[in-house]
Design goal:
globular; alpha/beta; Rossmann fold; 252 residues; seven-stranded parallel β-sheet; binds nicotinamide-adenine-dinucleotide
Length: 252
């Protein structure tokens, strides 16, 4: 309990899946949480879930691929909660499951706008707020797809590798200012994002599970616990780290 007591956190894309679990866990551990996303109904649901156990949360509708919306979000969160301590860059999409020779430029651009530029914009505008506190913690969301190759999801792999490198680069840049930057690299976790892959290939998960040494997929809380550790002061000596949460998938 109270592992992030008194802190203020923004979790992007927290109306569903991993982001939702991360927002709820940070709130349960004492943070005031800005729940953000593009679905107002689900945003209200997450806030209600947090308030039901006495947590503090507010919902903001934001498209994180737009810089002006990221600026507005951070400004309003600081006005509402007084400061910013933790930024969880979670929002992301998988995009089209095609090989490189079939990738359309518009899809590539859209993937980079949502999965990578969002990390740039949110980080860029969170840093001045962290400087005011003399510290801060950013947790980005890469993926096992950012670590190893595969015969699937070309632009997704490229964006997630980019997020991992931005994590390492920014960790070095901001370490002297007591601002830590880490990322999580989850394996398959059953969320709406993964269920969406079944539309293209109904056997996606039957094939995927064979590659998991542990024999099961992750739950959103498995990733949320990793985010909580990296976000909290327990991780004070950890920066530039890619925390792999994948049931052994990339250990093979
Ligand atoms: N589920 C997995 O197996 C898995 C594995 C590795 C990495 N990830 C990553 O974890 C993150 C969360 O994925 P998830 O599985 O929870 O998916 P999800 O689809 O359940 O949630 C994604 C969230 O991002 C939000 N989002 C998407 N585009 C946005 C935009 N432009 N502006 C604001 N919000 C936006 C969505 O509204 C949603 O709330 C993603 O970055 C994903 O790539 C997921």
């Amino acid at each position: 309990m109270n592992r992030v007591e008194g802190k203020v956190a923004i979790v992007t894309g927290s109306t569903s899946g991993l982001g939702r679990a991360e927002a709820v866990m940070l709130a349960r551990e004492g943070a005031k949480v800005a729940v953000t996303g593009r679905n107002d109904e689900r945003g209200a649901e997450v806030v209600e879930e947090i308030r039901a156990f006495g947590g503090v949360a507010e919902y903001w509708r934001v498209d994180v691929s737009k810089e002006e919306e990221c600026i507005k979000l951070i400004k309003e969160v600081v006005e509402k909660f007084g400061k910013l301590d933790i930024l969880v860059n979670n929002a992301g999409i998988t995009g089209p499951d095609v090989p490189t020779d079939k990738v359309e430029e518009a899809d590539w651009d859209n993937m980079f706008n949502i999965n990578v530029k969002s990390v740039l914009f949110m980080t860029k505008h969170a840093i001045p707020e962290f400087r005011k506190n003399g510290k801060g913690s950013i947790v980005n969301t890469s993926s096992v797809s950012g670590l190893i190759g595969d015969r699937e999801l070309t632009p997704y792999h490229a964006t997630k590798a980019c997020v991992k490198m931005m994590t390492q680069k920014d960790a070095i840049e901001y370490a002297p200012e007591n601002i830590r930057v880490n990322c999580v690299c989850p394996g398959t976790v059953m969320t709406p994002l993964v269920k969406g892959l079944l539309a293209d290939d109904p056997h996606y998960l039957d094939n995927d599970i064979k590659r998991y040494p542990c024999g099961y997929f992750g739950e959103p809380d498995d990733v949320a616990y990793g985010v909580l550790f990296l976000a909290s002061d327990e991780g004070r000596f950890v920066t530039g780290h890619a925390l792999v949460i994948d049931g052994g998938y990339t250990a093979q």
